[in-house]
Amino acid sequence: MFHLFEKIKKNEVYVIAEMSANHGGSLDNALEIVRQASNAGADCLKIQTYTADSMTIDCDDEPFHINGGLWDGYKLYDLYQDACTPYEWQKEIKEECERCGIDFLSTPFDRHAVDFLESIDVEAYKIASFELVDIPLIEYVASKGKPMIISCGMGDVQEIQDAINACRKLGNDQIVLLKCCSEYPANWDDMHLGNIADMRNRFGTLVGLSDHSFGSIGAIVGVTLGACVVEKHIKLDGIISADSEFSMTIDEFANMVNDIKTAKRIAQGPTYELSEKEKSSTVFRRSIFAVEDIAAGSVFSESNIRVIRPSNGLPPKYYKEILGTCSTKDIKRGEPIRWEDISNTSFDESNDAYELRSVEPDDINLLFTWANDPLIRKNAFHTEQIKFEDHKKWFTKLLNDPSQKQYIFMKNGQPIGQIRFSISDDRAVIDYSIAPGKRGFGYGKIMINLAKTRFHEEYPTIKKLIGQVKKENRASSKCFEDCGFEEVFYQFEFDYKE
């Protein structure tokens, strides 16, 4: 069983150890690389299936010579003859992989290589970057119906898409693309691993990394950017080959595997949930405390309350709203300020300053802004942010729904809150909120008292009002209590008297 998709489904990185020419012409070395790669944490050992004659022709003309780079001075035919893995070794290498519990993978370079690999029952294929444009080869490989790992070094968008289309044309959609820079070794400035996310979105495939750079930093960055596969060349100590200069030792490879696993853990997300250790640290956040003794009835001021550590009091965002209100009790220096400590008596509660008006079509944007305020979403029973299109549909329905009645609460002509009644038979459920910047001044109590009177005048058959509040929303709970509601089975109820 080829384990690539199983690993990816578990959100783990599938690590391929590329042997290439690093056997140095020895089958014993090749088998030792398999064993050591397995011990180092590889999920798969990869080789290449070709002969010098399947790659090129034996020709001394200038185009067949390499000038510059790692293989400077080589003739192509001679390079491939030195670097190839003999066909007669490959079944034994595959069997050694099976004994070691890792997958076996190879890169074919012509149809004969594919046929040979089929004869030894390979379970997946790799397409090399240089063969990305060999559409006939890709089609032939894809026709076998097995997973296709395709390196995209040197490939432009159209060439990559052509290769994908060739696979899908044959009904093969088991495709993993590998971002690759076909330099040996790869220069970090040329790797452009930011392409990984774009490739995933653009081509609709899984995307990994074939890394030819020195060290493990390229692989780590690739994983943090979403690479689900990492391929890296691996070598034994002291073995010199055509690929050894940019290959990792076994120890380096083992360290890279551990670093990849760590990087994968670090890059988890998005989530805004606190860890258990973070939760334990929140006790040392800032909150509002008394910094002087405060007598009952005294006004909260900048001199007697401050935002300090720890977090036992109200959050700092309510500091300005609390200033100017009055204390309901004696508070000692060093005690936290809580909602029950704050009186509404400093406000003019006469109805002359306040009014309720029915919601109008022009209120759609105002209500949308209020509804998505972070505190309102936190205290709502459905905490997800609301999309405007969903809000628009809801608001349009509300305006024409006889079971819904919503008011805007006004002070001196300015909207500062909303309250809605959802009617069912002889009862109505209340939903209310106060605008950001207007909380902590007692407006909720004023609004609910006004609204329950106004609503009863308009709907005299309603006998009971119900306020549903999250257990942790102490401010709203106290507001309903102050307005004459009684807590009954975790909700607040108010009965109109005959």
Walk me through the topology.
Blueprint: H1 4-9, E1 14-18, H2 27-39, E2 44-49, H3 52-55, H4 76-83, H5 87-100, E3 103-108, H6 111-119, E4 125-127, H7 135-142, E5 148-151, H8 157-169, E6 175-180, H9 195-203, E7 206-211, H10 217-224, E8 229-235, E9 248-249, H11 250-266, H12 276-281, E10 287-290, E11 305-308, H13 319-322, E12 326-327, E13 342-343, E14 354-358, H14 364-371, H15 374-379, H16 388-399, E15 404-411, E16 414-424, E17 427-434, H17 443-458, E18 464-468, H18 474-482, E19 486-488, E20 491-495
Parallel strand pairs: 1-2, 1-8, 2-3, 4-5, 5-6, 6-7, 7-8, 8-9, 17-18
Antiparallel strand pairs: 10-11, 12-13, 14-15, 15-16, 16-17, 18-20, 19-20
Question: Could you give a short description of this structure?
Answer:
By secondary structure, the protein is of the alpha/beta class. It has 18 helices and 20 strands.
Structure description:
The chain has 498 residues and is of the alpha/beta class. Helix content is 34%, strand content 20%. It is built from 18 helices and 20 strands. It has helices at 4-9, 27-39, 52-55, 76-83, 87-100, 111-119, 135-142, 157-169, 195-203, 217-224, 250-266, 276-281, 319-322, 364-371, 374-379, 388-399, 443-458, 474-482, and strands spanning 14-18, 44-49, 103-108, 125-127, 148-151, 175-180, 206-211, 229-235, 248-249, 287-290, 305-308, 326-327, 342-343, 354-358, 404-411, 414-424, 427-434, 464-468, 486-488, 491-495. The strands form 4 sheets. Strands 1, 2, 3, 4, 5, 6, 7, 8 and 9 form a 9-stranded parallel beta sheet that branches. Strands 14-15-16-17-18-20-19 form a 7-stranded mixed beta sheet, with helices on both faces. Helix 2 (27-39) runs parallel beside helix 5 (87-100), helix 7 (135-142) runs parallel beside helix 8 (157-169) and helix 10 (217-224) packs parallel to helix 11. The longest helix is centred in the middle third of the chain and has 17 residues, at 250-266. The protein is elongated, with a radius of gyration of 35 Å. It starts with a helix and ends with a strand.
